[in-house]
């Protein structure tokens, strides 16, 4: 099979020397400068030939690993009847994030942000017996989400290419097998793409489901933070992360509760300063509405409440933070001065750090007043306990007890165990061997194909430009032709053309810079575009019977004998 080739004199590309004004992160800057993408509108891009080749290469890796894992490729519509989303209840959940369009008959459609509804309906219409299962269907297709603030180029776009797969099994054991197969396939995909990544426990978000894990490409500009342990394999995003619980310790003798005047001091830091103490000795009582009742979440003053952990502590109930409107309806609640013993709270849920053996400074349930020396078990007793404080660096790992780290990353994949949420709502049922009907058990598996490109560039670049891993590079070899002038130009050009044709005949994808441009421009573009191997065919070298090879990733250079260069480059 011959490799593809392209001459830069014909390539549709315009490289830029300066960073685009609207680009905030390295990947966005370099992908625009290298002529891979061009902005059409906020969060929407055109893909130029070089960018499209990388997109196709990443997609091919994904396809190969999905096929190897037993998934089957389909193509599902981008325009989906909004009625399907109403059946699953997700039309309201996505809210303004969803693009909605109306046809000439006034029928509403959604531009797919994902495809659970459509694929579940498809399988429900085709399969109805336990003998049909399991099945795993996937597609690589464009998705649409109306991000409030698109940014970082492809990392938070409104149109993006995504691989989404959906498994259908007869029981939980089958789901686990499908999930494990997808997890293994994802590990292979991201490894082949050259990414440094970690799998972390995650919240399921709008997709739903009971179990989910994110694959995070480690990057300083990542919008998602994740917690991990260097001593063991524990990892989770900050929403799902926990830490080792604080043990109950005997409380030393403490003074009696004391009410203190703190006028116009509803905040932690100002109260700590006023009382000559520190934020970690104060307690926050954060108000939540849980099915219409007031619930107080108790954490130390130097910690933040993990809203997802509070939600998880009340399964099946509606949980949300109190808003200004809620406080306006409840003038009996002293906003900023609520204490853990507030009589109007139906429930108090406390983080285990509230067990620290010291008295607390808390709200005194009266505006402009706090209470000192509040003692657990004496002055207040939480209704329930849960790890509801966000994890911070240095907290102890819940698995091995060693200190935890927090890094930032780019989410490039997410796997979910959905259960029967969608199959029940959309009628995807099967009949067992006894004739009884059951909902199919589903899994969902997404990879951000276009987002992977940004993650790769964030990890693989230097001051000169992009450094593509070989598996995804637009071309494997970039020939820089420096023909010189006069009679030698014909000889040098012929040598470059022969190498170009020879590499293609041996299955190597080659880019030949045959432009009438200066050596400086050609070398700068070669580094910017980032093909794995650069070959310089110049008058001086050809005169000595050699060409120069540069490995883009390392900068290592050597000379190859012109007569045997083809064999050396394809060995």
Describe this structure as you would to a colleague.
This protein is of the alpha+beta class. It has three domains: 52-77 and 113-242 and 406-458, 2-Layer Sandwich (BirA Bifunctional Protein, domain 2); 258-385, YbaK protein (Alpha-Beta Complex); 475-570, 3-Layer(aba) Sandwich (Rossmann fold). The chain is 26% helix and 30% strand. It contains 15 helices and 32 strands. Strands 4, 8, 9, 10, 11, 12, 13, 22 and 25 form a nine-stranded mixed sheet that branches.
Give the arrangement of secondary structure elements.
Layout: E1 5-7, H1 26-33, E2 37-41, E3 44-47, H2 49-68, E4 72-73, E5 79-81, H3 82-88, H4 90-94, E6 99-102, E7 108-111, H5 116-126, E8 135-144, E9 159-169, H6 172-192, E10 197-201, E11 211-218, E12 224-229, E13 235-237, E14 258-261, H7 268-275, E15 283-290, E16 293-300, H8 307-312, E17 319-321, H9 324-329, E18 347-350, E19 360-366, E20 369-374, E21 384-385, E22 404-419, H10 421-426, E23 429-431, E24 437-439, E25 441-448, H11 449-459, E26 461-462, E27 465-466, E28 477-482, H12 487-505, E29 510-513, H13 519-529, E30 533-538, H14 539-544, E31 546-551, E32 557-561, H15 565-570
Parallel strand pairs: 1-29, 4-8, 16-18, 18-21, 28-29, 28-30
Antiparallel strand pairs: 2-3, 5-7, 6-7, 8-9, 9-25, 10-11, 11-22, 12-13, 12-22, 14-20, 15-16, 15-17, 19-20, 22-25, 23-24, 26-27, 30-31, 31-32
